[in-house]
Design goal:
This protein has a domain of about 100 residues: 3-Layer(aba) Sandwich (Aminopeptidase). It contains 4 helices and 7 strands. A 7-stranded mixed sheet has the order 1-2-3-4-5-7-6, with helices on both faces.
Length: about 140
């Protein structure tokens, strides 16, 4: 049986309300990231992965810039541990590979390091704070 959701690559213009709803729930309300940090003005220039339930509800998302930086991977709490984040990462990595990216990177929240390691990412440098949350840079050669 397939996943109870789909992941599509979208531009900000087409997915903005749905993408915003996920990130507001996860980063702003759940993790306490200030709205002015979350809405950094960089979404227009990114490629976005959007996960939708079969009922059409937005359940997860992520974004990638032209320089290969992946970020804002987020999944609504009730959909975690159901491979939504994995499917989002796979969609972004497939996009990077088909567009001949040589390397991608993430600024991973430290609790998520094992998730990114499962794709082959490795830590680079020291832990740092972003929006008050501990992160570490991780890279993956494609």
């Amino acid at each position: 049986m397939g996943n109870p959701f789909t992941v599509s690559l979208v531009c900000w213009h087409d997915g903005e309300p749905l993408l915003k709803s996920i990130r507001e729930a996860v980063f702003i309300r759940e993790q306490g990231v200030p709205a002015e940090l979350e809405w950094d003005g960089l979404d227009e220039g990114a490629r976005h992965a959007l996960a939708l339930s079969h009922q059409g509800d937005a359940i997860g998302c992520g974004r990638m810039f032209a320089n290969g930086h992946i970020g804002r991977i987020s999944v609504l709490s009730q959909w975690r541990k159901q491979k939504v984040g994995t499917a989002i990462m796979e969609a972004l990595l497939d996009y990077a590979r088909t567009h001949d990216y040589k390397e991608v990177d993430v600024d991973a929240q430290t609790y998520a390091v094992p998730f990114y390691r499962s794709f082959g990412f490795s830590e680079q440098g020291k832990e740092f704070l972003d929006a008050g949350l501990p992160h570490i840079k991780m890279t993956l050669k494609l």
